[in-house]
Every structure is written in C-alpha cells, then in structure tokens.
Write a structure and sequence with these properties.
The protein has 345 residues and is α/β, with parallel strands linked by helices. It contains 14 helices and 13 strands. Strands 2-8-7-6-5-3-4 form a 7-stranded mixed sheet, with helices on both faces. Strands 9, 10, 12 and 13 form a 4-stranded antiparallel sheet that branches. α1 packs across α11. The radius of gyration is 20 Å and the shape is globular.
C-alpha cells in the first residue's frame, strides 16, 4: 500500500535522526532552556525577521492550539474561526474542554475574510443581549487551511488590520506552514506572517520533524507567563532539547523550505495528472493537499493500491477525497500513482 492519506506517515528527516543520535548522551538542562533550543530560536527569529519575538517549543499541534488560545482568552470569551477550521472540526472539542467556545463562521474554502470578522464582532456588540452571549475574544486562522487553500499577503493584511482595529489578537495555526509558504504562486513569507499576526506557530510534526511545533509570539502583551500556560496544559517537554535539536536542523540552512517545496512539487504533479483527465478539484489548493472529485468506481480501483482520505460525498456516485504528499514522498511513488490515474481514468 502506497500512502497518500496524510503528511505524517513517515518518521523524521534523516538529518534530524542523525543529529538526535549524535547528541543522545549529551547532558543539557531540561524544559527548553538548553543551547540547542536557544540556537533554534535564533534561526527562527532570523527567518521571521522578528528579533524581538518569543519562541517556544511545544510537543504537538493540539497543545499549541489549546495553550495559545487559553493564554489569550478571558473566561467569558470565545475564538472566531472558520467553521471548517481545525479547532472546530478536528480537535475533539479540546478548546471547549478548556471552557472556551469556538465561534464558527460558515465558509466554503476554509478561509476567513476581514469583512466576516468585522460582521461577527459587530453582530455581537449590536445585540442588546450581548452580555448573555459568548464574546469574540480573538481570531484563529490556519495557513494552509484544512482545505489546502492559502492566504495571500493582501488577504492577511486586511485581516490583520481589522483585528488590530477591533482589538482581537490574531493567531495563525501553522501546522503545515512550510507547505503554505512554498505553495505554487504564494506571496506570503514567514516575515510577512510575523509582521501581520500576533502569534503563530511553525509546524514540525507534518514537515520533517518527529514531533513538535514552534510557537512564535510577536505581540508583547501575549508573552507574559506563557511558559506557565505551556506547563499547566501539558505542552512542555522535560527533555526539551529533543525539540530544539529538530528545529535547529530544519532551520540552520533552509532544510524546512527545501523539503516543503518537494512535497508541493509532487502534489502539483498529482493535480496535473487529474486535470489532464478532466477531473475537477473540490478546492483550489496549490499546497501538498489535493482534493479530486472521483467516481466511487474509480476510487475503489485506486484504493486497491493507494491510501487516501475521504473528504465528503458530492452525490450518489462521486466523492471528494484527499491525496496528500509530504516532505518524504518518493518521486517513484507519485510516478506509480500517475500511471494508475492514466490507466483507470
């Protein structure tokens, strides 16, 4: 079985494994205050052109999302999010379990718009009973979105402007950040994201690391006591250097961007193969996630050899599915898929 259902089926980039093995018996302080974490922080600040940012390493994406959101919101507040957003659909109610409501905004492509944020905010405060309703306290977006769509610099600039005008901290989930930054036609850089968002994270779990995410806080008011929140909510790793070493390797010479580009290039090959057969895509994704709409008959044939993710039923005989490449996807595996696409379609 050749697996295309997600981007975390493999372990870690060999260079990370080598570095972990080479440093295995070294003694370092715990909890992320070691030299490897500090060096990785420096590389990330440089990549983001954000020398004054705070960088924290957490063990996973759910922990990053929950800790960041919990650290920002007051008890009576919720987080504005696309209805299809990860925290609304794929976190098993983690945000709600901490006592905060996810305020979903209906959309089709997974992206929030500045005008939607303003409307949700205005709708709350214009309601005469607003004191009886969960108050919007921040905004969550992801880049790329759950549907593989990405924000342009102009779109993120508009969102940032309205959030700052309304006093809503802007948080970007970057679990697949590398694939978004390296997406075909992308004009949004890490430096842009650092400039326009108050807090975001750079995902390692899905982009070459064994595990781990790097939370970057640029807004001074959000920095205070953040490590307390990490510890309290289970996101702090005692052997923190294991996280620092991984991000040190990913960012010391641009490996993060190199392997992200590889995944996107392989996904574009898959996209082109389906397009050549007249297959429509559910979402216009230029990232490592592709969403072809295929007949159940074709899906059954492809499923004999390839693992993919079911996304949604389109009608009685067709479904949208996801073929997802990763930093480690082999060119030969995509070659086989392309040959079978040509055969079954």
């Amino acid at each position: 079985m050749i697996r295309f259902e997600c981007d975390y089926t493999e372990g870690a980039h060999p260079r990370i494994i080598e570095r972990l093995a080479a440093t295995n018996l070294e003694q370092t302080p715990g909890y992320g205050v070691d030299e490897y974490c500090e060096r990785a922080r420096g590389y990330i600040k440089e990549a983001c052109n954000a020398p004054d940012a705070d960088v924290h390493f957490l063990v996973g994406g759910t922990q990053a999302n929950t800790v960041v959101i919990k650290s920002i919101l007051r008890p009576h507040q919720g987080v504005l999010c696309a209805a299809t957003g990860h925290i609304n659909c794929h976190e098993t109610g983690a945000i709600e379990a901490m006592g905060h409501k996810v305020l979903g905004i209906v959309n089709d492509d997974g992206k929030l718009r500045a005008e939607q944020i303003r409307k949700a905010y205005d709708d709350h405060w214009n309601d005469a009973t607003h004191e009886h309703i969960v108050q919007p306290g921040m905004v969550y977006i992801s880049h790329p979105t759950e549907n593989g769509t990405t924000y342009t610099k102009s779109e993120l600039t508009a969102i940032s402007q309205v959030c700052r005008e309304l006093g809503l901290p802007l948080f970007m989930d970057g679990a697949r950040m590398g694939y978004g930054v390296m997406a075909q036609g992308a004009d949004l850089t890490l430096a842009d994201i650092a400039n326009l968002c108050d807090v975001f994270y750079i995902g390692g779990t899905k982009v070459g690391a064994l595990f781990g995410e790097a939370v970057v806080i640029t807004k001074p008011e959000l920095k205070k006591d953040f490590r307390y929140f990490i510890k309290q909510h289970g996101g702090m790793l005692a052997k923190g250097r294991l996280l620092g070493i991984q991000f040190d390797v990913l960012f010391e010479d641009g490996l993060y961007f190199e392997i992200s580009k590889h995944a996107v290039e392989q996904a574009m090959r898959i996209r082109s193969a389906f397009a050549a057969k007249g297959v429509k895509m559910r979402y216009d994704s230029m990232t490592n996630q592709q969403f072809p709409i295929l007949s159940d008959e074709v899906l059954a044939k492809l499923g004999e050899k390839y693992a993919y993710s079911f996304w949604e039923k389109m009608d009685d005989t067709t479904s949208a599915v996801r073929f997802c490449t990763s930093w480690a996807t082999k060119t030969e595996a995509v070659d086989e898929l392309l040959a079978d696409i040509d055969r079954v379609l």
